[in-house]
Amino acid sequence: MEDGLPDRNLCLVVHSAGNASLMQRPMPSPGPMQLLIRVEAVRVQAIPVALADGTLVAPSGKPIVPGQEFCGVVVGAGSSVDRTDFPIGTKVAVAPRSFCESCYYCERGQTNLCEMGAELFGWHVDGGYQQYVCVSHRLCQSFDKNVSWKQAILAPSAAAASYGMTKASILPGDTVLVFGTNVCSLMGIVFSRGLGAESICVVGSPGASPQQALSCGATKFVHWDPSGDEGQQYQNLRAVILEETDGRGADAVMFASDHGTGVPDMYVAVRLVRPGGCIVGVRVWEGAADADALGGEKAACIVEKLHSKDIRYISVKGFSMSLFEQALRWIEGGLLSLGPDVEDCLPLNAWDEVHKKGAEGISTCILCPQLDMVHFAQGIAPAGFYSGGVQTVIPD
Question: Could you give the maximum distance between any two Cα atoms of the chain, in Å?
Fold first, then answer.
């Protein structure tokens, strides 16, 4: 173990629907095959926001620490972990889903399809909204010490977008429609552009800024307001896509819109993709667009639409560990970035402020739990992390 570790661990705990608070828990101790990670950055995503505001309830119904995607520093290891692979001080990114490593799919390298029912951090088991967490060493990938936390935290979204957009077989000159403006959506834009897409239209919520999407390679940005006339908004978006494609429809549609942001997905996607096109589903929520407003189609008719238009559907249910490692290598080599830096990096005790931005569709924030330590109150914050005012330090 690293010397000087605290005996208490600051966590954000969702106790029940809509009831979340910061609390001190005992310091976790790693099991035989686990690493103890000092969490340095955790991505703010839809599930933590929805858990905290009560929109979603964790499957177990028990208190849970949110946070699917996080990275940090190895400060301890279990008795069965090879210390030469993960020496103290190693920077690691953590894959958001567990896997068994022994089933049919894991043995084929398809760990995202694990038969044991992969557990998701921050949903099935405690996640990264805490200063220290124990995770299986199999879920950790080390990366170069010169790579920043802001860069490394992009790896899970990069792996998911790479998996989906590569399987979409995008060709030079194609038109791609992307629903959502979260980091995974932005990565989808980057990969679409890299694969040769000529036109990339992004649909975002009213609070979303077009700036990052356009800087990542989008050519058009359309706001979708769930409080507006959904039928008219659909017709306006349809007109944009048909104009870009000589009336055919988008070659590929990616939907990664976050829960609660009001951006539509499958109801609209099946109508705007061309015959023979492809839909990439990274996050599948119930569409905000009313089915009747879109021509009387019901959810059951989506299957018929997929069949009659010969649309390929690609489900991005996680990604393999090999692709996760590849994404980190791309980031290390400077081959993959989102242009403008992550919008805000705030301490854990600013979670409520950050979640409000997430609820507005502004989901490029990260929380940095180590900023809640006493040294931060003394003005010694890690370089390049926080640019706001003084934050309150949570006492023991």
Answer: 65
* Beta-strand pair 34-43/19-26: unpaired
For helices 155-167 and 321-332, the axis angle rounded to 10 degrees is: 110
Pairing relationship of beta strands 220-223 and 175-179 according to DSSP bridges:
unpaired
Q: Are 78 and 34 in contact (CB under 8 A)?
A: yes
Contact between 275 and 62 (Cβ < 8 Å): no
d(CA 264, CA 258): 10
Q: Say what the pTM is.
A: 0.84
Q: Which two tokens stand for residue 65?
A: 């620490």
pLDDT per residue as tens, the chain (396 positions):
778 899 999 999 999 888 999 999 999 999 999 999 999 999 888 888 888 888 888 888 899 999 999 999 999 999 999 989 999 999 999 999 888 888 998 888 888 788 887 789 999 999 999 999 999 999 999 999 999 898 899 999 999 999 999 999 999 999 999 998 888 899 999 999 999 999 999 998 887 889 888 988 999 999 988 788 888 998 999 999 999 999 999 999 998 876 555 566 677 888 899 999 999 988 655 443 444 444 445 556 777 888 899 999 998 877 888 899 999 999 999 888 775 545 567 888 888 877 776 655 545 678 889 886 543 333 333 333 333 322 323 333
Find the Cα–Cα–Cα–Cα dihedral 260, 263, 265, 267, rounded to 10°.
100
Q: Do the beta carbons of residue 56 and residue 68 sit within 8 Å?
A: no
SS (H, E, C) 181-206: CCHHHHHHHHHHHHCCCCEEEEEECC
Give me 53's structure tokens. 């505001």
Distance CA 357, CA 95 (A): 25
